[in-house]
C-alpha cells in the first residue's frame, strides 16, 4: 500500500469518526474499504506484470 493510499484511509477514518450523519459515516467507511481493495488489486496486477515479464514462454 502506498503512502497516498494509507493517508486516504487514515483521513477517511477520521472523517468517519467526525461525521454527524449516518450517510456521511457510511460513505467514509465504504471509501476505506474501496481504497484498501483497490490497493490490493493494484499490487496483484503489479505482481502479475512482473511474473509475465520474466516468463519467457509468454513473450
Tell me what you see in this structure.
- The protein has 59 residues and is mostly helical.
- The chain is built from two helices and no strands.
- Helix 1 packs antiparallel against helix 2.
- The longest helix has 33 residues.
- It is rod-shaped.
Any descriptors?
single chain
**Based on DSSP secondary structure assignment, what is the total number of beta strands?**
0
The helix-strand sequence is: HH
Question: Helicity, in percent?
Answer: over 70%
Largest beta-sheet details: none
Radius of gyration: 17 Å
Instruction: Tell me the overall shape.
Output: rod-shaped
Low-confidence stretches are: none
End-to-end distance = 29 Å
SSE blueprint and pairings:
Layout: H1 3-18, H2 22-54
Helix pairs in contact: 1-2
Concise synopsis of the structure shown:
By secondary structure, the chain is an all-alpha fold.
